[in-house]
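Pasting two entries for a bug report.
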Amino acid sequence: MGVGAGGGRVSAKTPRLTATERLRRMLAIVPWVAAQPDGATIDEICARFDLDRAQLLESLDTAFMVGLHPYTPDALIDVLIEEDRVQIRLPDFFTRPLRLTAEETLALLVAGRSLANLEGDDVDGPLVRGLRKLSATVGTDRAVDVELGQAAGALVPVIQGAVADRRRVALDYYSYGRDELTHRRIDPWRLHAEQGAWYLEAWCHSTGDVRVFRLDRVADLEVLEEHFEPPDEPVGRSIFTPAADDPRVRLDLAAEARWVAEQYPVEELEELDGGAIRVTLAVTARPWLERLLLRLGPAATVVDAPDTLVGVRRDAARRILQRYDG
């Protein structure tokens, strides 16, 4: 195993790749170089993967540290650079047939079908053919069917174009937590699927901060002529990111309501008798808590809540009854 002397140093004039960019390139570079019987020259690799010499050497400088515990030489990727030629030898575990657990197989199928459902996708392309083969390993060609919503799916190629072209977007967005429709101008930089829905990460000019938008809650969208420059290292945001000063509520949940801890981010969880749990949740908007408590009914008991959230379920139920009485 070896790396050329000084191979991982990048000059001050060379733009550094972000961690995400380095990972994407290495996932492509390593198997390609390893598949070449005599390796490949640095110039060949740079031309193929759109890198300059310093960027490539910086990326290769970390590749030889990848492997499996206990990280002995036979369990690490072997990178050798001699006379401007790069050779990569992969440990034996890379050449073994992939063995997935049932959970891993289903997760891969869900992710693949999410992409395959995009409007305009080739119905008999390599992705779909691969998913058919993978489905066969779990017993049926229809093992998993993913539907992310027609309205959201139709927006995906439009958003992808805006992200690629760095175009600003104007949209009307329904905020589920606050139960209101707002108009936003955003700089979009990442689109992804999670928990059965499409999400868009962007800079929101209305709030002056990074926000995550769920596509099936977009009422109207327009790609503007304005361009923007995304940050070098976009700040990733989870679907739900509470602020430090958001109120917290503590709930006792019966066994049949444990799904709350799986669907929503909880800050504390305590096991109780009979499969029940006690959880602490951050509440960014009162309407969200109202809907949750009405949905849970007697399966949830409010143990502790700030004054602003006392009587939430009672007040919401009273408003609903007034609508029926009216």
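Entry 2 (this is the one that rendered wrong in the viewer):
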Amino acid sequence: MKVAIVDDEPLARQTVRLLAERDPEVTIAGECSGIDAAELVARTKPDILFLDIQMPEVDGFDVLAAIGASTVPAVVFVTAYDQYALRAFEVHALDYLLKPFDDARFDDALQRAKKQVLSGRIDERLQRLVETRADPNALTRRFLVRQRDKVVFVKVEDIDWIEAADYYVSLHADGKSHLIRETMADVEKQLDPDRFVRVHRSAIVNIDRVKEMHPMFRGDCMLTLQDGTQLRLSRGRRDEFERRMRAK
């Protein structure tokens, strides 16, 4: 059985690898930090995934959202969460290793994961955990952009502006554009209204990136961003934009 290890700490990955390699039925498919996990899983197609939850750039729940909870049949969470946070795993009867763990506890988790693989059952409890863990009212911290052979994580604070593009939305960040299959209305709901403002039917702007505003005819304005991008501010949205700018 192929095992993949995702943890941002090299020493933690080494610990899991050394313990897993003691089992003659296991081979290590690969290991990485959270930001490279989606690519690793897509490339190696592991049977078992040891997944750390607390990682600084991309946490374990982001990894599951990126690869799809049903991509691997067995996931063992490795976490330093406190007992309150661990209730989520216990409610859904999902296995986890609480750092620091001993050899016996690791072996128990590995054996249960192997049995799940042999049963051929895709664990739907993972999907329920991902769905119930997320606060429906929480603002998005990053967008997951699926590309041909990888998933790119775009942090919200890096976004300069957002553009409607047919059935997609284009995120403009750090001089690059990233297409996601969502509507402008859905994206707008996920953003901090104190930072992002709809300036036109087809554009949302990060007000921290606005450098200048130039009045035009009929009440419209032209916004110039720090990178030189120019966006039209429609007359009907001007009052709200100026209110947000003053509050900022």
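Dev reply: Rendering is fixed now. As a check, the viewer should reflect this: The mean pLDDT is 86.
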